[in-house]
Amino acid sequence: MIRRIAPSLIAPLLLTTCVGAPPVVVPAPQPAFNALAFFSGHTLGTGQLRKLFSATEQTIVHGSGRVENGTLVLDQIVAEGDKPARHRTWLIHSDGPGHYVGTLTDATGLIVGESDGNRLHLAFTLKGGLPTDQWLSLAADGQSAHNIMVVKKLGLRVAVLDEDIRKTE
User: Fold this and answer.
1) How far is Cα 130 from Cα 154, in angstroms, rounded to an integer?
2) What's the CA gap between 119 and 114, in Å, rounded?
3) What whole-number distance in Å separates Cα of residue 165 and Cα of residue 147?
4) Tens digits of per-residue pLDDT, 96-124?
């Protein structure tokens, strides 16, 4: 009898154990999100990272960006919970109005991005084959953005970062 019941419990259990995500905000027409402009200079990101079967961890990301020959070079120091801080680098350039491509040291393959009004959507695959989407919404002052990053495995949300990023210059 247990064998007949157990498979019927697996699907509901998986659905209830997925990491919930805050809603992605509908984009506003202004201010337009220009990734190269926003991430040039210094930024500070503070947030909470929720992972499946783990406690919520605080995150702090210090960024330093510059544009070289049309490419954003964004160096970041990422502190996640009690883990040692790590360095990562984004290289992003525009490949058309509102479209971006690039690389990230934490990712495999290309990053692709698209801006729609004040929202920027980035999609890439983290090392380990984890499809990842980020939605950044630029605030009206143009000096801060809200970031929701969703990481999936086998189609299920396994991690969600809810972060506020602000320019510090």
Assistant:
1) 8
2) 8
3) 7
4) 999 999 999 999 999 999 999 999 999 99
Residue with tokens 């969703």: 150
With tokens 């699907």, the residue in question is 11
Tokens of 47: 């947030």
Token pair for 21: 């995500």
With contact defined as beta carbons under 8 Å apart, do 144 and 166 qualify? yes
Report helix, strand or coil for 87. strand
Q: How buried is residue 6: exposed, middle or buried, by Cβ count under 10 Å (0-12/13-18/19+)?
A: exposed
Q: What secondary structure letter does DSSP report for 38? A: H
pTM of the model: 0.84
Encode pLDDT of 3-52 as tens digits.
Answer: 444 444 444 444 444 556 665 667 777 789 999 999 999 999 999 999 99
